[in-house]
Write a structure and sequence with these properties.
single chain; 221 residues; mainly alpha; Methane Monooxygenase Hydroxylase, Chain G, domain 1; 7 helices; 85% helix
Length: 221
């Protein structure tokens, strides 16, 4: 194995570690929301520093590989994809942190009835499933797993579109908890963004494996 191969292997392992860490952040913020667990929400906030530090480390490693080894073909595509995957993972971590802050922003638990109306548990489960697909695609170089993510993202978009109407209906009812409604609406938006960022990751995986650009309608999905 060449020195470049060793560095690429190490870079992939770092990306997988980052992915697992961010996936755990999303899972924890979902549990913190449903269980109104402020301690778990604080844990998400504390772990965000690790996410940021790992993002910087991966960026530096990508830059060093480009500068020292001048990779070409699939090796170059992998490093370029790694830079964008890393950035999207960090943004997913940011969204998980934001959800944790919304949980800590209220003094009373979110009523399960409201969580159900916004379909937040379903959204979080879909987002976690998308992250699992992306992990499989990255570890196994499985573009079929990447392509499963696109349809799941459509499901998140559909739920997100209904969230404003749900908020209006709740505000017009006798349930006088506007902060809960607004925070839940914001949480829906954050989960939808997690789906978008996971879709971006899947596109980058397909780019480096198949040399196909899927952004901006580059391929019929």
């Amino acid at each position: 194995m060449s020195h470049l191969d060793t560095e690429l292997k190490y870079l992939k392992e770092e990306l997988i570690d980052m992915h697992r860490l961010v996936r755990l952040q999303v899972s924890k913020c979902k549990d913190a929301l449903v269980g109104f667990d402020n301690d778990l929400a604080r844990e998400v906030l504390a772990t965000e520093r690790r996410v940021n530090a790992l993002e910087l480390k991966i960026d530096r490693d990508c830059e060093n590989i480009l500068a020292l080894f001048n990779p070409v073909a699939i090796d170059l595509r992998f490093v370029l994809a790694a830079l964008k995957i890393n950035s999207n993972l960090e943004r997913i971590g940011d969204n998980a942190e934001s959800i944790a802050r919304y949980v800590m922003d209220v003094t009373e638990p979110f009523p399960l009835e409201f969580i159900k109306k916004y379909e937040i548990s379903e959204m979080a489960d879909i987002a976690l499933s998308m992250l699992d697909d992306a992990m499989q695609a990255l570890e196994q170089e499985d573009t079929a797993a990447s392509r499963k993510i696109f349809m799941k993202d459509d499901l998140l978009d559909a739920i997100n579109k209904k969230a404003t109407d749900t908020t209006i209906l709740l505000m017009e009812s006798k349930n006088n908890r506007p902060l809960h409604f607004l925070n839940l609406l914001s949480i829906v938006r954050k989960i939808e963004r997690i789906g978008d960022q996971t879709k971006n990751i899947s596109e980058e995986i397909i780019f480096y494996i198949e040399a196909k650009v899927l952004r901006h309608g580059g391929e019929d999905r």
